[in-house]
Every structure is written in C-alpha cells, then in structure tokens.
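FORM 7B: Structural annotation worksheet

SECTION A. Query
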Amino acid sequence: MIEYRSAEGKVERLPSLAAELVALNVDVIVAPTSVHVLAAKQATSTIPIVFVNSGDPVESGLVASLARPGGNVTGLSTLAVDLIGKCLEQPPQANLPVVQPTKFELVINLKTAKALGLTIPPSLLARADQVIE
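SECTION B. Predicted structure
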C-alpha cells in the first residue's frame, strides 16, 4: 500500500504531512527533494527515509557523509565530484559536459533490512545485483 502526501507547493505543510506518515507507522518514506527529506528527518529517526534526488546530501544536512550516512536517511545523489573543479573554473563560454549515470545497481543490505524489521521479498532478492548478508 502506498500512502501519498502532497504539500501542493506549500513548504510550510511538510512537517505536518511528515508527522501524518510517522503516525501511520509506514515502512519507508520516499521524499523527492532535500526540503521534503529534512521535514521527514525531523519527524522520525527510526523510519527509513529515501531521497530521490539531492545535489549534495552532506552539504544540505541529510547525511553525515556519503560513505557513512548514519541515521535513517539514504538515497540518490546527483553530485558529480569530478565536475566540482570544472564548476569553479572560468570556462571559455557554459563548455561543461553533461554527465549521466552509466550503471545502475540494485544492492540490498539484508543486515540493515533485518535491523529495521523489513522483510525483503525473494523476487526482489533474485533481481539484486548484490546482496549484502
């Protein structure tokens, strides 16, 4: 079952919407942007929160570090570390490359899933590129 909430562009509604999801005791919260994640992070420290897109999750306060995020927040970062130097240069006339991911992997950490009380369906385990026991 999916419990969907929308602030309809009203950021001030995010804390109450996050609190609603926490009260429903959902299994996971998926949030589209850093603002949404921060509201969810303030509402719970136990329900896993997955962000869909964050430029720099460390800078925005979503996670402690990319290698060891800590807490209950994880997700996909669009930060391209190899381009940071290029962004700081003064390019000869907006000549920065567009970078896209070249590979997507599904990695399932069973130890973390167990610690969170989550059961991973066998069909999902079969599709995983890597399963961490």
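SECTION C. Observations
Residues 1-99 form a domain with the Rossmann fold fold (CATH 3.40.50.2300). DSSP finds five helices and five strands in the chain.

SECTION D. Sign-off
Analyst initials: ____
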